[in-house]
Amino acid sequence: MRRPRLYGPGELAALFGVSRQRVLQITRRPGFPEPLARLIGMNVWDADEVDEWARHNRPPRATEGRRAGVVTNAPARGGVRASAAADRRVA
Fold it and tell me: Is 23 helix (H, G, I), strand (E, B) or coil?
């Protein structure tokens, strides 16, 4: 008998290109495959079931969709644009 391929939260994060916190949100969505096992430290899913789900439902990555290629001049953390902060260091 063939062993099932398994995904834990770390594998899902890598597969979807998201954080482990986002993985928790994704795995709680209706329609996401049920865990194959619920362990003390984490759940594990059948990789084939997750791969099939992802083919039809994978959330877009930050580099896809409407966020792709968007250049913003919004302030960085601390309220100062990165370029303005660099100008101050040079002065």
Answer: helix
Whole-angstrom Cα distance, residue 23 to residue 45? Answer: 12
Instruction: Tell me the C-alpha distance between 70 and 54, whole Å.
Output: 25
What is the DSSP-derived secondary structure letter of residue 40? S
**pLDDT 10s digits, 32-89:** 999 999 999 899 999 999 999 999 987 565 565 544 444 444 455 555 444 444 444 4
Q: Which of 77, 22, 15 minimizes the C-alpha distance to 51?
A: 15
Domain edges within the chain: 6-67
The verdict on pTM exceeding 0.70 is: no
Residue 65 has what DSSP assignment?
G
Six token digits for residue 58: 């994978």
Give the DSSP H or E segment for 6.
Answer: strand 6-7
- Which residues are bridge partners to 37 per DSSP? 44
